[in-house]
Design brief:
alpha+beta, three-stranded antiparallel sheet, 3 helices
Length: 129
């Protein structure tokens, strides 16, 4: 059995195939991302996202790429995965970037393990006048 579902909001088409033999359903997701690729290419060519002192877009990640990243264990909506998201975009999805610049973040530690440190070491405080 085969059926297709279309999401008009995202433009994603799901092609579902169910097998009676092994009781599995396979889902293929497709999306026309050419307009996005044209837009990001124009932004890179004109350096529109390379200005200073302004918030600029770094990249756009369409839903079909979000699904691909989820299959790799990377959730674009999880702040702890952001270093992996940026690394993956810079390596395998450069065409989604609005700039030729490269951004990266260090790995994030969960907030429960973040150690609070003061700017001065413990001990006596010496003030000279």
């Amino acid at each position: 059995m085969r059926w297709t579902e279309y999401d008009a909001y995202t433009g994603v088409t799901e092609i579902n195939v169910a097998s009676d033999m092994d009781e599995e359903v396979t889902v293929h997701r497709v999306q026309d991302v050419q307009p996005l690729l044209d837009h990001t290419a124009e932004a890179r060519n004109t350096k529109a996202a390379d200005g200073k002192n302004q918030v600029k877009l770094y990249c756009s990640i369409p839903p079909v790429v979000q699904y691909e990243l989820l299959n790799k264990g990377i959730n674009v909506f999880n702040p702890d995965h952001m270093p992996k998201v940026l690394a993956e975009i810079n390596t395998n999805y450069r065409h989604l970037k609005y700039t030729d610049k490269t951004h990266a973040l260090g790995s994030r530690r969960p907030s429960s393990t973040v150690k609070q440190e003061s700017s001065t070491p413990p001990g006596s405080l010496l003030i000279q006048s």
